[in-house]
Amino acid sequence: MRILVVGAGGVGAAVAAIARRRGFFERLVLTDLDAGRAEAAAARAGDERVSGVGCDASDTDALVALIEAQGITHVLNACDPRLNPPIFAAAGRGGVTYLDMAMTLSERHPQEPFAKPGVMLGDAQFAEHEAWEQDGRLALVGIGVEPGASDVFARHAADTMFETIDEIGVRDGADLVVQGYAFAPTFSIWTTIEECLNPPLIWERDRGFYVTEPFSEPEIFEFPEGIGPVECVNVEHEEVVLIPRWVDCNRVTFKYGLGAEFIGVLRTLHLLGLDATEPLDVRGQQVSPRDVVAAALPDPAGLGDRMTGRTCAGTLVTGTGKDGAPRATYLYHLVDNERTMREDGCQAVVWQTAINPVIALELLESGAWSGVGVLGPEAFPSQPFLDLLAEYGAPHGVQERDVDEPQRAG
After folding, report:
1. Residue 407 clears pLDDT 70, i.e. is over it
2. Cα torsion at 243, 249, 194, 410 (round to 10°)?
3. Are 78 and 30 in contact (CB under 8 A)?
4. What is the rounded radius of gyration, in angstroms, for the C-alpha atoms of the chain?
5. Strands 280-282, 285-287: pairing kind
6. Bridge-partner residues for 308, per DSSP?
7. Mean pLDDT of all residues in the chain?
8. Per-residue pLDDT tens for 97-107?
9. Which pLDDT tens digit goes with each residue over 318-336?
10. Where is 74: in which H helix or E strand?
11. Residues 6 or more apart whose Cβ sits within 8 Å of residue 63
């Protein structure tokens, strides 16, 4: 297996740091618009199988040439989702397997943006399913932590724990603290703005897909292992698109533990138009307001030394258990920043995202996972993934919840 990781930022560098301990790949090439960043991330891995080169991810022709020159068999997209179209197209033209951790972007409904979905996350990729299937190639989409591990948890609960499922609700929260900054997101602010300010997507069996206002339906969710209560709100996310395709249930939601201060900053950015992606003319220069915000904030990949605490990603499943009794179970993946920094030099949030595509690549190489077309993580057996998650030193937890306890409004 020869892997091309497109994007050598926090997640791409963490992929190399995690993969270096495994023997399933022959070569891993990190590429980035900034060749120096790719080379530095490869050097930190300290593995002769890992190298870094420069390439513009927005240039499909350049990516195809790199795939061919390096003899690549698998492309892992570790860039912001705005670059999905050229990277996805390059993998298709190059005849290789494609993986990503976030799907193609959505577009709001032109008349009713807070009631009806327009173009949904991943629509552009799923439109290519038959072409990929006919060519006998695989595009494994949404294989980060959320989406990714959260989807595997949903599949596992449906297969092994529940007879019928009422709701699958992904819940993400943390007790992470970044010292020295009044505001410092621990993940890409570009992606965070996109997720949080777009109308959140919800799916119900009888209603189909619909959207609400950003930050709707607040609830207090009690996260495990001492993290405790965190206010979570509806956020646009791929699980709501992916899970209903392969898992039989009645409702799917995604709620993110942002906190009042973070929500306030995002609202302010929106009010000022600083969340916009269309360039403005600034003294003769074309500048995207959102890119300015991203440039003004610290690079999340470099915050690990200032961070303390843990991040938890998980899936709450409610319904009827295999024994016929009501059941509510939270399957989760919890990562401590102190450990990821000590072992791999990566902060917890990017490490938690990166470990999942590395596991998927190993499962594809071993044959434990296989398929053709554009598929989500739910399309594959869950147990091999969970076994490797534990083997990699990141075991998942299972917490039984009180089925009679109502959610507390935030």
Report:
1. no
2. -140
3. no
4. 20
5. antiparallel
6. 177
7. 94
8. 999 999 999 99
9. 999 999 999 999 999 999 9
10. strand 74-77
11. 6, 55, 57, 75, 86, 87, 90, 94
